[in-house]
Sequence to fold (692 residues):
Amino acid sequence: MSQQTIEQLKPQVKTAIVDLLYRLADDHLILGHRNSEWTGLGPILEADIAFSSMAQDKMGHALAFYRLLQQLGEPDPDTNAFLRSGDQYRCCSLVCLERGDWAQSVVRHFLFDEATRIRFEALEQSRYEPLAQVARKLRGELKYHTMHGQMNLDKLGDATEESHQRMQDALDRLFPHAMGVFEPTEWDETLAAEGIQPREAELCKTWRSQVADMCAESGLTMPDDVGPIYGGRAGKHPEDLKKLLDDMQKVYRLDPDSEW
Amino acid sequence: MTDTQWPVFEVFHQQARGEPHVHVGSIHAPDAQMALVLAKEQYARRMACVNLWVVSAEAILATDYEDADIFDHGTDKSYRESTGYQTTKRAKAIGDTAEI
Amino acid sequence: MVYPMQEMPLNDKQGDPGYEENLAAFEARVARGDKVEPGDWMPNDYRQQLIRLIHVHANSEICGALPEGGWIPHAPGFKRKLALVSKVQDEVGHAQLLYRAAETLGKPREEMVEELISGKSKYSNVFHYHAETWADVAVIAWLIDAAAIVNQKMMAEGSYGPYSRALKRICYEEAFHLTHGYDMCISLATGSKLQRDMLQDAINRWWKPIMMFHGPSDKESKHTEVLMRWRIKLKSNDAQRQEFLKKYVPKMFNLGLTIPEEWEFRYDEATKEWRYNEPDWDEFLNVVRGNGPASALRLRTRKLAHEEGAWVREALAAAAAGEHVPVPVEMN
Fold:
């Protein structure tokens, strides 16, 4: 099968791609926003700097996805990010949750980036070429994110009693939300059939087994008996997102028609 | 001291293949592995980079600036330089006009 | 003849044998424009003055990350959001470089951080104020960074090698901050009435701290003379202030901005200098001693961040030492 360009897309496929891109863009923007809340407040200067870079990367990745949306006739990135209401967002609950302590942020970063790595590896082969190109372009930055995530999980997982406890608590709390990254949508079949992205359940399965191994190696126990928290992909979000969007859009909305 | 002071690692940055690694500064890190991951963002977040080294500062021995005179040349060392020779002129005199 | 990098001799007390001779050699080196390096003999006063100065400078970077950092969640639009996170990240990076430079003089970073959060050591006057609106972020990034660049470019030519090296990198990054700040101010100054008013209001509130930024007038500054002889500092506070004003006041006027009337700003054609009503230096001293509008908040925030990070620093150090806590192993 050949690669698909924008002009060749069937309407239903286009709708499915738009939905996927919103999920990707919104996840990255909201997580980038959350992680940027650490800038200047990290546990030590060196760690602060590295975490801030990754927050910037996440926002940059969001921007790349919003630009793909714009190419498909959706609003420009700023309008999309700064003028949509919460129920129009398609991010998962994992990225919406408040920053929490460093353990929560590190565990979220680890869980999300492992999910992203597995997804992007698949997207690099996507038959929707613009998306495949973005996935290939972001590979290097994402590789650093997963390197950083795995290393911190590995070291903090069992270094001291306190670090172990905090990391395990974060993992227990976040795991159901992390499974929600792979919330199935009505577009799963279309995307899979068209070779754009594998089914969410399939990605989730790979992620789950790899993450379980990494957790075990880090002295952490991945919760076994919990179900996923879904809703984000349908626009149903925890309260945390409303507060985040109020904060994020506050200045922009003072004068949406002006350049800031 | 009420806190843990992490050790210091010196950071060396290589801008492109074929270029030398250049010392760009130092960071505090718990170990060499973390030092590399952290140095990447403190020292290579703008500059082009293909390779990064970290070295425990404790592993470095340095000469004392007070002893910088050991690097002075007390006697004529021009014999180590190509400019220390009149050979072009001499070669020409024996009929060799090509570049030496 | 060799020393591990971490163990530099500290043979610099007044009254030590050879002190006068060493001092003469040191001053001759500085006068020649040679840099001083960590292992060198240096007068204790030089070491202490530099530690004080670099420590305050590093504190200012890390505290300077706070007023702007508070606006990161509110930055309007992708471009501003990315630039602001990057700018605040740079401030943290500058703190790292500067604390490191100060450490080469013998003072550990943790000790400096403790002294900052206990209120024992100071930081720049400008970060003792609140950033109240988005325009404050623009004014800080443009004018305060501009004022800081005047100072840092000068200090980069100073005599102490590690400080000078750190400042060269810092000045390079500050150039981006300045551009980013000016760009924001241009947007606001040429934007809607709401934006223009917001910007002028920010200038009105920030002009006093900006005028105080370079420190007390030369008549009042007690350190200047010895700092200049040792090339720790190369220009007086007033000279730095004039350099800043000369370049940026016309740019402000060009954007249609005004300086609050009580300063009675006027240009003296004869001396090519700006004249103004002298700032209240007692107020300045009171602010930097920790009695500014945002002083308590700044230290509280830094203290909290430091305390909340303690377990991470400890755990990563423990992991590096090969420590592990026993954890259940029956997984999967």
